[in-house]
Amino acid sequence: MSQQQFNQSLVDFLSESPTPFHAVQSMVYRLSDAGFQVLEEGDSWNVEAGGRYYVVRNGSSIIAWTMPQTSALESGFRMVGAHTDSPCLKVKPTPEMHKNGYFQLGVEVYGGVLLNPWFDRDLSIAGRVSYRNDEGELADALVDFSKAVAIIPSLAIHLDREANKDRTINAQTYLPPILGQSEEKPDFRALLKTQLEKQGVHDVAQVFDYELCFYDTQKPGFVGLNDEFVASARLDNLLSCFIGLNALLTSDTSQGALLVCNDHEEVGSMSAAGAQGPMLKQVLERVMPDAEERNRALSRSFMISADNAHGVHPNFADKHDGNHGPVINQGAVIKVNANQRYATNSETSTLYRHLAELEEVPVQSFVVRSDMGCGSTIGPIAAAEIGVRTLDIGVPQFAMHSIRELAGSADAYNLSKVLSRFFITERV
């Protein structure tokens, strides 16, 4: 696959994935087309050497893997981890608001959202709806309004002359999007029922609850005189999900290869579907039931936690350590933190540098300024939960946690090449 083909597939995936539920659905389609077999958590599993499988939890987290042709005890697993969620505005359970003739929805801030860019954007709504069907059974369906149905207008500069100097955002009062005008407060659940019917779900008797978020309807695209950049919502961290998925799909079954994409990373990962939950550990226990053999296999395993990094912004270069300012399109970034906010150590970073050298792609490193706090990833969590050697790496980007982010059009492709080699490497 060429870089151009890779990037086109990437923007297609981003367009299909406005929520973690849709992202997992998109991954399931691609895995199924490649011959991966779905396993249900409530069923008995019978995995075979050379088999290709996936399992979904909560509709928003997924683990896909290939069983090695040889014993998993001998080869262990090469694992890549990412997360499916992104900071956003989520619709509250009783969201309807009617003020001055405008219909609005109350929202809750999910994760560390950069709020200013959400104003004056064409917004839509997507997510999962839970309902009772005509037969009295409980069911779920994905919903996506697709078109722009809402907006959060800015307050005019004439009414706030200090806006460009100091405008803080009150999440409770400033953020409810406007969906239209009406004489009375509409029933949002009735609107969801209508939308599901438009999408072909005709058995909805009553909508009970939902997990919905607003998203920007502007499509992903390329920016720059020479298309140097990819611009899109949710690059953090659907970009890494796609990179890992592409690498897994192009791998063989000579070694055990596994991709885990967890939900809820942006809010701490502590959930049944999050990295701090038991999902990965439970899958490994079912794939390798004998504890002695599993622990020996894990000693031969390796995890690459892929989560985007902060590229050095030319207008704010002082926010970076002078020796550790990653530049976009100059390679994926090895993330290091002495206080274990990242799981990288010298052994794990050396393996990545070796693989990158074999693929002839550049590598950078990132350490946060010593006078600033450091974020984290699923890497330290996975390392602590299953005791596996782990590397934290990521594609450098701008505007992390904004409604529209920016990454390099070469970096994702190059990282995918290294991960593809990683999945088939005999010794790690």
From TrEMBL:
GO molecular function: aminopeptidase activity; metallopeptidase activity; zinc ion binding
Enzyme's top EC category: hydrolase
Gene3D superfamilies according to UniProt: Aminopeptidase i, Domain 2, Zn peptidases
Cofactors demanded by this protein: Zn(2+)
GO CC aspect terms: cytoplasm
Sorted UniProt keywords: Aminopeptidase, Hydrolase, Metal-binding, Metalloprotease, Protease, Zinc
Entry's EC annotation: 3.4.11.-
InterPro entries with a match to the protein in the record: Peptidase_M18, Peptidase_M18_dom2
Top-rank taxon, per record: Bacteria
GO BP annotations listed: proteolysis
SUPFAM superfamilies: Aminopeptidase/glucanase lid domain (SSF101821), Zn-dependent exopeptidases (SSF53187)
Protein family according to the UniProt entry: Belongs to the peptidase M18 family.
Name of the protein: M18 family aminopeptidase
